[in-house]
Amino acid sequence: xxxxxxxxxxxxxxxxxxxxxxxxxxxxxxxxxxxxxxAGNPSYDAQQEPARAVLPLVPATATTxxxxxxxxxxxxxxxxxxxxGDLMTDRAxxxxxxxxxxxxxxxGMLRANGSELMLDHGFTEDDVDWEAHFTGPDGNxxxxxxxxxxxxxxxxxxxxxxxxPLAGATVLRGPHLVVSGTADDGASSxxxxxxxxxxxxxxxxxxxxxxxxVPLADALGPDATAExxxxxxxxxxxxxxxxxxxxxxSFGDHLATxxxxxxxxxxxxxLQLGEHWPGGSPxxxxxxxxxxxxxxxxxxxxxxxxxxxxxxxxxxxxxxxAVCNEVSPIPRPTxx
Length: 336
Hints:
Blueprint: H1 3-23, H2 50-53, E1 64-68, H3 70-76, H4 88-101, H5 114-121, E2 128-135, E3 141-146, H6 152-160, E4 170-172, E5 177-180, E6 206-211, H7 216-219, H8 226-235, E7 246-252, E8 255-259, H9 267-273, H10 284-287, E9 289-294, E10 299-303, H11 307-315
Antiparallel strand pairs: 1-2, 1-6, 2-3, 3-5, 4-5, 6-7, 7-8, 8-10, 9-10
């Protein structure tokens, strides 16, 4: 074959190859899939830290979880053995101090009915070791963990009588729990959620967990204005942040630790959002200060000068580090 003929053949092959490639559509991007659930069917283990122990009872569809370790709060405030058997004045003094000096994520579900429960059934909120509440699209629920020597027959009688918020609950006598709205089994619970499990388990006075991120407008608070949003965006383009699958805030001894998962390349950007957060009443800076971060472990540490304020900001999710990486404009007032 002459060089000229060989060139013509090669040219024809290249033309066919290019034409064939033009006819093949590009591969479609794989849709983002949620991470596979962890294997197994975990069950409740009273030996674990409360926020970890409760995970098998939290439905997979839940979006938030708050856990207050009242036993740890009592220890921090110097009354580790306080129960309903103590003087009412001592118990009242504890709750008065806890309201300002502890990061309570609950006011104590049974406190409003304390007199009725004590008179009719012989127990109160002071016999609860820890209390958890969860919310989600399929309904809310709770778990009350009573002290190990609590008479659960008395608790069961109160539940059967529909006393206060205990109406419709279920008593688990062995583990000393009262539950409502909990998961049917551990396999369909937060205990097999890979985004949540690594975030909890360290001893704390209280722990708050949220699956997903918080929309910027919500994190700014109910009274936020378009100007507040502009101020934040002038310092940080939140659309540059990475996705946030879940976060946890744990409190202990005037400190708070935020956990968002390991190897966060956006951790310092999220930390610095708090430095330019608009003021409010209270503001983020009233509850959290002195931030330090570690991207490798995905943690932010804060000083907590006012634990009750920090707990309130957490429950309302007024949390700059937790914002989503998209922006929905806050409407601006229009002139008349």
